[in-house]
Each structure stands twice: as C-alpha cells, then as structure tokens.
Design brief:
Length: about 180
C-alpha cells in the first residue's frame, strides 16, 4: 500500500479523521447548547450537572461558578479538538495532492500548535473545576512534559514547512 495519493495510507487516515470529526462536531454543538442553556436557563444546566452527580434534579437550584466553568471547559475542549482535526485533514489533503510544502500548511500547523496549547490550558482549568462541580475533591494537575514538547515540535515543523514552502516557491520561479 502506498503512503500518499489515491487509495493510500494518508487517504485512509484523512477519512478516519473525517469520521471522528463528525462526532467531535456533534459534541461541540451539544456542549454549546448546554453552555448557552446555562446562561438562559440555569435550572437546565443545574439539572444536567445533577444528572452527572446521580442526584435527584426535581428541586430547582442555582448554578455555581465551578459548574459553569466545567461546561465552558468541556465546550472549549471539544472546540479545540475539532479545530485540530480539521487542520490535520486539510494538511493530509494537500499531501495527497502532492503539494505538502504549500504556505497554507504552515498556517495550518501553527493552528494545530495553538489548538494543542488551548487543550492543555483547558485541561488545566478542568482539573480544578470539574471534580468540584460534581462533588469530588480537586485533583492534582500532572504537568505532562511530553505534551508540551509535542507542541514545541509542531511549531518547529511549522517553521520547517515555511522554509520548505519558500524553497519550493523559489524553485518554481527559477527558469
């Protein structure tokens, strides 16, 4: 099986990412509705949180800040994941078309890096507020050096792609 082109590993990976992208988009929409519902009708969001705690939600109550921040964090995590998958699919499409070092891929890789930073910061937010909102004690944040080094690698690859794009453009203009 070939790595790039039609019926390749890159095509299969792009198809799998597209399939996952649908479910991540649905999760993002659901979390946006829950977040919007917490602003419009706090009783709705409180019932949602009470359902996660396995409590009886027959009594109306106010929604507290940790619970609102948990909904916001879930929405942001889903949104950043959708952003990353979408950029990766576009990179794979350009690779399949034989134009990996186009300048748009530089911006896409930088977008992936920013999305990964967003996921890490959202995880930091959720590790403190999510357990509190469902009635557990806050857990410790485990600083994952591998994730932060991976983000650094993505930005380095974006710079490599930028230089490759400049070299490709220079080669195309040379007679």
């Amino acid at each position: 099986m070939k790595l790039i082109g039609k019926y390749s590993v890159a095509s299969a990976l792009r198809w799998c990412l597209g399939f996952a992208n649908v479910f991540v988009m649905l999760a993002t929409i659901v979390m946006a509705i829950c977040l919007l519902g917490s602003v419009i009708s706090p009783d709705f969001a409180a019932g949602f949180i009470d359902g996660m705690k396995d409590l009886d939600n027959s009594t109306a109550r106010d929604l507290h800040w940790p619970e609102r921040l948990t909904l916001l964090g879930a929405f942001l995590a889903c949104g950043f994941t959708w952003w990353i998958i979408n950029r990766l699919r576009r990179i794979l499409l350009s690779v399949n078309q034989g134009d990996a070092f186009e300048f748009a891929n530089v911006k896409r890789l930088q977008g992936v890096g920013l999305g990964l930073i967003g996921i890490q910061l959202t995880a930091l937010l959720l590790v403190f507020v999510a357990p509190q909102s469902i009635g557990q004690s806050p857990s410790d944040y485990d600083f994952d050096l591998g994730s932060w080094l991976g983000i650094l690698v993505v930005f380095i690859l974006a710079e490599v792609f930028r230089q490759g794009s400049a070299m490709r453009d220079e080669q195309l203009t040379t007679v």
